Amino acid sequence: MVLRVVIFLAVLSILLWGMFRAESPPELWQGAFYGISSDKFLHFFALLIFSVSAYFVFQLKQRWILWASLFIVAGVLEFLQNHFQPSRQFSYLDMAANVFGVFVVFMCCQLRALAAKWNR
Q1: Which residues, in sequence order, are bridge partners of residue 33?
Q2: What confidence tens digit (pLDDT) does each residue in 13-62 have?
Q3: Which parts of the chain span the membrane according to its record (predicted)?
Q4: Domain boundaries of the chain, sorted by first residue
């Protein structure tokens, strides 16, 4: 359990550093990859990894509290990023990428729980 908490705190630290640093991350590729910039992939994967680590740390009886919190954080982070770093621009697409990262983990966990229920 201690290792899970350490990993979660490391992921949280990296997420916050990436979201609130003064400059935007560099583009990993020129142009768009299937119409999606590398920035959107970074938002998606950051929240996906954060959601996975949160899922394994916060073993709540009522999982809806975890998921509601993660979805709220995914949306609010983009507002806060623009508020604390005026040099960064607010983007609904970044917010959507954040929420989609949480959504993918949510769906995987729901499918895992459903499969476990069927296999009893």
Answers
A1: 36
A2: 999 998 888 887 777 766 666 667 778 889 999 999 999 999 999 987 88
A3: 41-58, 65-84, 96-115
A4: 2-22+37-118
